[in-house]
Amino acid sequence: MISRTERVLNHTVLAFVSILVLFPVVWFLFTALSPNRGGQLDFTNLEWGNFSTAWKLGGFGHAMLASAVITIGAVTGQTLLAILSGFAFGVLGVTGQKIIFPVVLLGLMISAEVFIVPLYYTFQSLGLTNSWLGLIIIQIGMGVPFGTFWMRATFRAVPASLVEAAEMDGARTWRILWQILLPISRPAVLTLALLSFMWTWNDFFLSLIFIADPAIQPATLALGVFQGRHSVDVNLLAAGSLIVALPVLVLYAFFQRHFIRGVLNGALKE
Amino acid sequence: MSSRQLLQRRAATTAAVPEDAMGNRKTAGRSGRRKPRLSVRARKQRWLGLAFAAPALLAYGFVVIVPIVQSVSYSFYSWDGVSAARFVGLGNYKSFFTDPELAQSLAHVLVLVLFFAGLPILLGLLSAALLGRGKMRGAGIYRWVLFLPQVLTSVVVAVIWKRIYGPDGPLNGALRAVGLGDLAHNWLGDFTWALPALGVIGTWTALGLCMVLFVAGVAAIPNELYEQARLDGAGPVKEFLAITLPALRGQLAVALTLTVTGALRAFDLVWVTTQGGPGTSTITPALLLYRKAFLNPDVGMAAAIGIVLAIICLLVALVITRLSEEKA
């Protein structure tokens, strides 16, 4: 029951906003291909070499490796812990959960600024600053509240009868988790892993604080340094930015449903 | 601001409602299974549960909980990170009322709230009022585009906009092209314009998310409601006020909490674009925290800023959730 004018209006508004959102990104994309240091657009003369030049100048090889190691470590850790604790809180029950669970959920409201200062000094005394392992540990610990919340809700949405039937057949705890709950929950686990990938890869604040050594800095940090040093080479700067953003963009292109649905569901369910 | 916060805030606010609110509604049967009396088996199972949760709890305790407690205690001391700490009681907290930089940073937060929260939500609501009814062709594409800023790294967003605002960037180019060359500025290097310019970046990032949220919310409103309203002779404005707005209360709460706390915590964007400058014209509390913790150490003060930020964020989340539920 939507009139034609209304439909046209809808598309006009959405298209207009979409252009506003997209314009800076597209402009930047062409800047990255500009042959000119000042970044003037030149569509007849696209300079693809900017990417490899930026890659070399910015040391992005090392930086991307650092980001990859940190991200893969954090995603694996976060997902595993989320599955275990989601199973514990959602299905098994946990001794003392009346106190423990609210404390875990408190972590959802707390952001890094509150605990970053003492954490830095603790990590420093343990030799965990300036190390990928240190960042991985922080990311894993910070991921616990959301992961637990997410996987607990997921496992609880599995029909109880299914678990009971398996119990009846004599399945033990491990088998119930790995052979019944997990296969059913695969989409939710994938969403969790993707979100955690995006958050870890995109992190800047924690890396800035915990990694001082340029030789081991992750990509976001390397880009920050690169933009300080090469602010006159606009085209290279743009190319470097795209290199850093690329992994998440590729995942987003393939799994956009998971990203958007994950965020909207996480935000809106119940 | 990121979608991470969105998820976390919302999860937290739903969780703050009665204890098991989010899982139990769907599976009321299961909680009944272990509630009545704890058999030996069930009790054993809960210890097993604790074992399963242990790795997560340990990591969380080590990284988050213990440092929070330490943060509170740090905040009562004056410490430069090297020499002996000196107990100053609430002295660091008093600085919030006396230190001009802190006061200034809090004032900047108010401006940022306008841009990070006010504008995107207003525009988002406007578009939700116009859109969203019925299925739209191409809705997926719009969603894909509008959501894009949410997956871009904040550093990249900052670099993009630095270019846009640059002295010979596209914004000034456009102004010159239409004969308004006099208005051209080095936007981020200007005492008056740097803060609003930063704000606009926040608007750009949050607008799409707010739209996606609200449009999804409107799509969930049963069409009959609108048809009924039309039959009752309601105009578009009345329709919006009577149906759309009340139905979007949940989404509004999410968007508000997220964007307001995003403004409160602004760091990455500011750090990469202006580092708080020129002068202190774009300084934010999070930036001061970073400076005081790691550049010219006043560690106790940094901890106090962190605690105050956390408390304000918590209050914002709680108040907004309360308000959004009250009229339900």
TrEMBL record, chain A:
The chain crosses the membrane at residues 12-33, 65-92, 99-120, 132-155, 204-224, 236-255. It is found in: Cell membrane. Keywords: Cell membrane, Membrane, Transmembrane, Transmembrane helix, Transport. InterPro entries: MetI-like, MetI-like_sf. It is a multi-pass membrane protein. Signal peptide: none annotated. Residues 64-255 form the ABC transmembrane type-1 domain. PROSITE patterns: ABC_TM1. Gene3D superfamilies: MetI-like. Belongs to the binding-protein-dependent transport system permease family. This is Raffinose/stachyose/melibiose transport system permease protein. It comes from Kribbella aluminosa.
TrEMBL record, chain B:
Its main location: membrane. Residues 27-38 have a biased composition (Basic residues). This is Raffinose/stachyose/melibiose transport system permease protein. Keywords: Cell membrane, Membrane, Transmembrane, Transmembrane helix, Transport. PROSITE patterns: ABC_TM1 (PS50928). It comes from the Bacteria. InterPro entries: ABC_transporter_permease, MetI-like, MetI-like_sf. Residues 106-320 form the ABC transmembrane type-1 domain. Belongs to the binding-protein-dependent transport system permease family. It is a multi-pass membrane protein. The chain crosses the membrane at residues 47-69, 106-132, 144-161, 193-219, 240-264, 299-320. Residues 1-38 are annotated as: Disordered. Signal peptide: none annotated. The keyword Transport applies. It is found in: Cell membrane.
